[in-house]
Design a protein that fits this description.
Helix content: 25-40%
Distance between the termini: 19 Å
CATH topology: Metallo-beta-lactamase, Chain A
Strand order of the largest sheet: 7-8-9-10-11-12-13
Shape: globular
Order of helices and strands: EEEHEHHEHEEEEEEHHHEHE
Radius of gyration: 17 Å
Number of helices: 8
CATH superfamily: Ribonuclease Z/Hydroxyacylglutathione hydrolase-like
Mean pLDDT: 96
Low-confidence stretches: none
Number of domains: 1
Number of strands: 13
Structural class: alpha/beta
Length: about 230
């Protein structure tokens, strides 16, 4: 039974723990390490690896402290180079080249964001659980079979964003950047429609915008579309 813990999500910082009962993995480390430790009741020595999608601070803030704690960090070469990190705990990975951490077989894949070599991760374990983790991307070019858990960014709604632009809350430059770097509710729906959701047990909507989202609306619409259990942490 897979346990998912959304330690932090959103523009202020992202960190998630997944645990299949054998191997615990940290996905992102975008808040202070002390906060991660606190939220996990200081049981961080059990974490076997940390996956980082890209270099932005809300995803990589405590990367050095994670390595100091003896945890290997897996990210793209572009991410490590941008962060100027060189450490024996650095484990560069490439899109479409799978690797193993404990019971997890992990396949990184390309996503679309305004940084060097951002990636998402497909994680599969020996119990048959298959987890998709994709954040900070306006598009996912791949289709996935046999997913059991979907952890996906649902940053904004185009309708809410347009209302905020019209009201002068968001400027047009920020709107353009959002639409070229983050996953909208509308694009999440299209992505879910073209993928195999037959085995999906849970869908987690991550990284909602403070200004351009509506958690209750997003949850309701994705539940109605998929018929699946939806969490908005």
């Amino acid at each position: 039974m897979l346990d998912i813990n959304a330690i932090a999500t959103g523009s202020k910082g992202n960190a998630y723990l997944i645990d299949d009962g054998v191997t615990k993995l940290l996905l992102e480390c975008g808040i202070a390490w002390k906060e991660i430790q606190k939220k996990l009741n200081f049981r961080t020595s059990e974490i076997k690896g940390c996956l980082v999608s890209h270099n932005h601070n809300d995803h990589s803030k405590s990367i050095n402290d994670v390595m100091k704690a003896g945890i290997d960090v897996y990210a793209s070469k572009g991410t490590f180079e941008t962060l100027r990190i060189n450490n024996h705990r650095v484990k560069p990975v490439k899109a479409r080249e799978q690797f193993q951490i404990g019971t997890w077989t992990i396949l990184p894949f390309e996503v679309e964001h305004d940084v060097s070599e951002p990636i998402g991760f497909l994680l599969a374990n020996k119990q048959g659980e298959k987890v998709l983790f994709a954040t900070d991307t306006y598009f996912i070019r791949y289709k996935f079979q046999g997913l059991t858990h979907v952890l996906v960014e649902c940053n904004y709604s185009k309708e809410i964003l347009n209302q905020n632009v019209a009201a002068g809350i968001i400027d047009k430059g920020r709107k353009k950047r959002l639409m070229r770097s983050h996953f909208s509710l509308e694009n999440v729906k299209e992505f879910l429609k073209v993928n195999d959701l037959s085995k999906v047990q849970e869908i987690w909507l991550l990284h909602l915008s403070d200004t351009n989202s509506d958690a209750d609306l997003f949850k309701r619409e994705i539940q109605e579309l998929t018929g699946k259990v939806v969490f908005v942490p």
